[in-house]
Design brief:
Elements lengths: L4 E9 L2 H5 L2 H15 L3 E10 L12 H11 L5 E4 L12 H10 L3 E4 L3 E3 L4 H34 L12 E9 L5 E7 L1 H17 L3 H10 L20
Parallel strand pairs: 1-2, 1-3, 3-4
Antiparallel strand pairs: 4-5, 6-7
Helix pairs in contact: 4-5
């Protein structure tokens, strides 16, 4: 007679791009397909963690991880399955101990991609640590690449998103993002930039404050970008 093993699956995405995309359904389909192939496995629980960085956020501050640990202690499942072990986290000084914690509680730790992680001999523990050490390094390198890319975009005047500040307008930069959308480049808005320059002169030369400047602009019927009238937040524009 085949022994039934109760399986819990955990899915995690860390970025908004993954959240808006197809990452969670992909992890779910892969885990469920593996469960169907394993004799005696039965899916009994699924945990989903959305928009949480496994590199920046400690497991102690992740509600889904703490709930999974509590359920393991209460004997609600026998196997914890993830798409890859880095879905549990990417912290090389913490996540290997989390894996080992579950194993010590009698939980089988499985990954669709990497198979089972046992902690029976010294080499098992070493492989467990090396996996997350490598994952942590990849996260740092990815972060460095993203930061450098953003720095270059700023230096080139490419707009990274949000509302275009007063005093500027967006033009086609000739570059595209990953979704094929045109990236804008900020250039000076000739009429608005004159208003911004005047604001700064009023502050530097005549000692005007925010509300006094807003009152003056409203009296002169100088249009804003969106609001009906100027207010104290005019200083959000840039020269």
């Amino acid at each position: 007679m085949v022994q039934i093993k109760r399986v819990a699956a955990l899915y995690r995405v860390s970025t908004k791009g993954q959240l808006d995309g197809n990452d969670i359904p992909m992890q779910r389909r892969s885990c469920r397909a593996m469960i169907e192939k394993q004799q005696g496995w039965k899916l009994v629980k699924e945990y989903t963690e959305r928009g949480v960085s496994g590199f920046k956020v400690s497991a102690l501050n992740r509600d889904v991880i703490q709930r999974t640990k509590e359920d393991a202690e209460n004997g609600l499942f026998d196997v914890l399955l993830v798409f890859m072990f880095d879905r549990l986290g990417r912290k090389d000084d913490e996540t290997p101990f989390l894996v080992e914690w579950f194993v010590n509680k009698g939980i089988e730790m499985w990954s669709v991609i990497e198979g089972q992680q046992k902690i029976e001999v010294h080499t098992d523990r070493m492989i467990n640590f090396l996996r997350f050490w490598q994952s942590s390094g990849e996260s740092r390198k990815t972060s460095d690449r993203v930061n450098e890319k953003h720095k270059q975009m700023v230096e080139e005047g490419i707009f990274r998103g949000g509302g275009i500040p007063y005093g500027y307008r967006g033009v086609d930069s000739g570059n595209f993002n990953k979704k094929g959308k045109v990236l804008l480049k900020l250039v000076k808005h000739e009429e608005e930039s004159l208003v911004v320059q005047r604001m700064f002169r009023l502050v530097l030369e005549e000692g005007y404050g925010q509300l006094r400047i807003a009152k003056l602009l409203n009296e002169e019927n100088i249009p804003t970008r969106k609001a009906k009238q100027w207010g104290g937040g005019y200083c959000e524009c840039h020269t």
